[in-house]
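Protocol step 4 of 6.
Sequence for Glycosyltransferase family 92 protein (Alistipes indistinctus YIT 12060) entered exactly as in the expression construct, tag removed. Do not edit the line below.
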Amino acid sequence: MVHHKVFISTPHGRYNKFSLGIKKVLSPCLDLLYRQIIRHKKQDTADKPYYLSVCAIFKNEGSILREWIEYHLLVGVDHFFLYNNFSDDNYREILAPYIERGVVDLIDWPVPQGQFPAYEDCWQKFRETTRWIALIDLDEFLCPVYETSVGTWLEKYEKYPSVIVYWKMFGTSGRIEHDPEQLTIEQYTVCWDKMYNEGKVIINTGWSFSKIYHHIIYANYKIGPFHFHLWIPPVNEFGKFIRWEQIHRTRRNATVDNISFQLNHYWSRAYMMHYRKKEKGSMCENYRHSMRQFFNSEHRNRAVDYKIFRFLIELKLALGMGPKDMSCNRE
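Step 5 output, structure tokens:
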């Protein structure tokens, strides 16, 4: 692991200090190039039905669907494009009210290893309906730290092709079993003491993208009469372009305590949830490796984070968890 004042990262491949040094020198130069292109690009000002939408693929996530949808409605998500990938639980019953309200588009997606193709399909079919598309999973919660709306936070990045939001990694919080009567965001509060240097991307549909992934996505910008292609990476909240994930780019006074946005990643939840998931399809050696990784991550949980709790009462009321004569008024 590589530690930074804001980030923890896992080096991919061999950790080459010389190569890393070259990339650190090149990064500010590339920033200047990308900014010049953005300055001269005609901005997309077309009115679209939604400002911020979420695209997600799911399989048998009925236990968290309502919490996840209601939470994201609270923080300013307008619409959801949800891709069902071989679910056989009660997801249709859960989603029916949201589909009827026009909040959710449900797409059946019986495609093995279908996550990236689903993102590509969403981009091709729905980009004219929304200004931004966040590509996240159902164990991830968009969490603005100071703003109350993700859309408001995004307004300052409207000229950029995409924005990366970094993971805050939450572990088991010491729980062996998950309590189905309690919300995920309430049960799991123990986390890494720094941000992970990876996350997910929110893409601006006013730009072109040749291939849609979820960690790092490059906008495809054509220059000149011969259409020379230049690939523009996402920007982070500090206004730094992330061409190489292993380069930790922040402002000088940045600390883990003044990050303005985090993507809460409840990647394991309770121990038995992770155990059962990994036990299903793994050979013995792969399973042992997976459990070693699990405990390596669990041992990094040295902090407690309650930032998302400021939305907790509103979420409980929206889910009907308060007194029966009370309701959550979103106006």
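Step 6, annotate. The mean pLDDT is 90.
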